[in-house]
Amino acid sequence: MVKKHPSTQFIDKSKSMELPRHVAIGHDVLNDIGEISRALHFRGPALIVVDKTTKRIAGNRVEKLLVSENYDAHQVTIDEADLINMEKVKQEILEIKAKFVLGVGGGRPIDMAKLASFETKKPFISVPTAASHDGIVSGQASIRNKKHKISSKTHSPFAVVADTKIIAKSPYRLLAAGCGDVISNLTAVKDWDMAKKFRNEYFSSSAAMLSELTAKVLLKSAGMIKPRLEESSWLVAKALVSSGVAMCIAGSSRPASGSEHMFSHALERLAPKPALHGEQCAVGTILMMYLHGGDWSGIRSALEKIKVPVTAKALKIEESLIVEALTITHTIRPERYSIMSGGLTYEAAEDLAIQTGVIS
Question: b/e string for 57-89 if b means 16 or more Cβ within 10 A?
C-alpha cells in the first residue's frame, strides 16, 4: 500500500463567517447613511425601526437623509423587543415591500430590525444611538418570549453607522454598561477555552484573541472614559464593534458570552427590576473571574473607575437575589459549558459573593 504524502492529502475542514461590509464610527457619520446605502447597492424602499425616544434622536433624521438620496423611506415604532413587535415590523416590511431595514437606537430597535430582516431575508443596517452592548454588530438578537429573554441567531448587519456625536449625548450609564459588556469578554473566553479542553468544543483562536484584546484595551483605558466626552464614545463604540466582529468570526456568541452572561440572565428571571445588561454582566465577570483564579480585583477596580456598578447595592438588587441567581446560573443555557456548569450550593454562592465584595 502506497502511503500518501501529507501535502497531497485533503483537509476535511470548512468555515464560513459573515462580517459587516461597511463600518463607520465617528463625528457626524450619520450624514453618510444615504451614501453608504448606495455603496451597498441597496435599491427600493427602506424601513427604519425606532422606538419613541430614538425616533426623535436620530430616526427622523435618518428618514430625511434617505429621502434626500431619493429613497422611499418609512418608519415603524416599537415599544418592546418581543414577538408581537417583531410581527409588527415583519408586516411593515412586507407591506411597503422594503428592500432593506435599518435599526436606529439601542437594544430594542436594533434587535427587532435584525431579527425581522433576517426572517424576511432583507439586508440590515445598524445605527446605534448608544454604545450600551455589542449587539450593534453581532449576529445575535435578544427577544422576550413570554416571561424570559431568549437569544436568537440572525445575520450580521451589512453596515454599522455609529455617530459618536449622538452616542456622546446618550446617558452615561449606557456607555458605562457597554464597557461592562466588553470587559465581560475576559471570562467568556476563559469559559470557551474550558469547553475546548473538556468538551472538545470548536474554538477559534483568532476570535478569542480579538475578543480578549478588545476587553484589555478598555481595562487599560478605564481612566479615559468620561461622561459627554466624544473621545470616550468613540473608544467604547470601536470596542463594541470589535467584540461583535469576534462573534462573527467565531460564528457564535462564544467569544463574548459565557457564565457571566448566564448569571445576568438568571438575575433577569429573579429580580423584579433588573439592572442594565452590561451592568449585570460586569458584576458577573468579577464573580466568574474569581472562580477562574484570575485578576478579579483588577477588573473590579477598572469598572469602578468607569463608574459601572460592582455591588448588589449599586445594581439596586437585593443581595439574596444575587446569591440565588448564582445557584441557578448553571441552568441557563446548560448546553454551553462554563466554569459554572457544575452548579453552586447556596453556601458556596454566598461565600463567592462575599469574597468578591458583591454583597456584604
Answer: bbbebbbebbeeeebebbbbbbeebbeebbebb
- Smallest CA-to-CA distance from 36 within 147, 148, 127, 171 is with 127
CA-CA distance, 123 to 113, in Å (whole number)?
10
Q: Residue 299 is placed in which grid cell?
A: 477588573
The domains located in the chain, with CATH, are: 22-170 (3.40.50.1970), 173-355 (1.20.1090.10)
Kindly report, residue by residue over 217-274, the tens digit of the pLDDT: 999 999 999 999 999 999 999 999 999 999 999 989 999 999 999 999 999 999 999 9
Query: How crowded is the C-beta side of 41, counted as CA atoms within 13 Å?
Result: 1
Question: Which value, to the nearest 10 degrees, does the dihedral of the CA atoms of residues 159, 149, 190, 216 take?
Answer: 50
Is the whole model's pTM more than 0.85, yes or no? yes
Read off the pLDDT band of 139 (50, 70, 90).
confident
Contacts of 92 (CB under 8 A, 6+ apart): 47, 74, 76, 98
With b for 16 or more beta-carbon neighbours within 10 A and e for fewer, the 105-125 pattern comes to bbbbbbbbbbbbbbeeebbbb
- Furthest CA-CA distance within the chain: 74
Reply yes or no on whether the pLDDT at 3 is more than 70: no
How many whole angstroms separate alpha carbon 259 and alpha carbon 337?
Answer: 9
Residue 18's pLDDT band (cuts 50, 70, 90): confident
Pairing of strands 22-26, 159-163: parallel
Rounded Cα distance between 327 and 172, Å, is 32
**Residue written as grid cell 418581543:** 82
